[in-house]
């Protein structure tokens, strides 16, 4: 990518469809503006700012950890810092992620189907998965896949 070409930042979006089934879609953030974060610092590509109350935490999933089927407690960005983890949605899609791969979990409002509700997640490999979680305070009534541009 050259300095004058806007970046494309991929992410996975775990969302609830109109039938109450969790699904995952690969998305891209593409709306960036080249500007200084704080002059006189050099310009950098900046994405859209989202104003919402947020909670930030780091969580560590031990080796072999696997959660039961559940919904995300709030819409949240999940950013792996080290190790690997997976997310499996109700439609059977399983995505494994490590550092540099991000996910937006927004599967609230799913309906139980075949003993599944929300998603299943867990660690992959022989080291703990260290994840930074940024939870939004507000929730949307209806989720739209790839809503972050």
UniProtKB/TrEMBL annotation:
Residues 108-117 have a biased composition (Basic and acidic residues). InterPro entries: RmlC-like_jellyroll (IPR014710), RmlC_Cupin_sf (IPR011051). This is Cupin domain-containing protein. Residues 96-124 are annotated as: Disordered. It comes from the Bacteria.
């Amino acid at each position: 990518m050259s300095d004058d070409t806007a970046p494309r930042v991929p992410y996975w979006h775990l969302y609830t469809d109109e039938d109450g089934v969790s699904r995952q879609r690969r998305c891209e953030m593409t709306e960036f503006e080249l500007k200084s974060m704080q002059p006189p610092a050099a310009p950098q590509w900046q994405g859209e700012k989202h104003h919402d109350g947020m909670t930030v935490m780091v969580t560590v999933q031990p080796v072999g950890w696997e959660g039961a089927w559940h919904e995300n407690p709030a819409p949240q960005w999940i950013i792996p810092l080290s190790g690997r983890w997976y997310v499996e949605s109700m439609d059977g899609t399983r995505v494994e992620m490590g550092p540099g791969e991000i996910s937006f979990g927004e599967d609230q409002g799913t309906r139980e189907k075949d003993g599944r509700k929300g998603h299943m997640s867990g660690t992959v490999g022989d080291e703990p998965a260290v994840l930074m979680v940024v939870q939004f305070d507000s929730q949307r009534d209806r989720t739209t896949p790839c809503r972050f541009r």
